[in-house]
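Journal club side-thread
Mid-discussion, someone asked how the predicted structure for our own chain would compare to the paper's figures. Pasting it here so we can look after the session.
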Amino acid sequence: MQLTSILTLLLVGPAATSASQPLYTFANLNLTYYYDHSNFPYHPACDAAAGGPGWAVPTNEGTTACGQSVKDLNTNAVVAMNVSWLNLDGYAARLENLCGREVQIWKDGKQVKIKGGPFFLWEGCQACATLPRIDVSLNAYVAATGDKECHRGTMGSYDVYVMDNFVRRASSDRIGLSAPALVFGLVLAALASR
């Protein structure tokens, strides 16, 4: 059975579905949910399992490892992965090389997809540094697992590919100057050099 799944992935896996190629491959990961941008009213059992209505507000509105919050991104396609791996080469490298890359999630030779996809890497997961898992939205969790009651909370055996293309791009926000402030600074620098 496992050999069949591997052969299927090789034949119809991520390279066959798009022009992009996998940069990183993570086999046999668990999948769990950590935010719900939409606060789906048709999954009350999941809200109850996660702590009640509004459980995801702090996560939805908080700053992510790649900058913008889930709320600002207005999507359920954000994926969080191992924070240690994400930070391996430092903040600048993370923003330039990893943030916003497409993430493909596969199980049994089928790719998990959601409306509003594709998935993309945008957050670091602290628990994922020691547990073989990724974190996704509640919408993605239900699409991937079929667990509409959120009884399990974590499901296993997903293959995850971080692809070579970008769905979004992060910005470093290092230069927080507006255009008028920048022009004013250049004028001051020119006057000072006379």
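Post-session note: Strands lie at 22-35, 78-82, 101-107, 110-111, 119-125, 133-137, 154-166.
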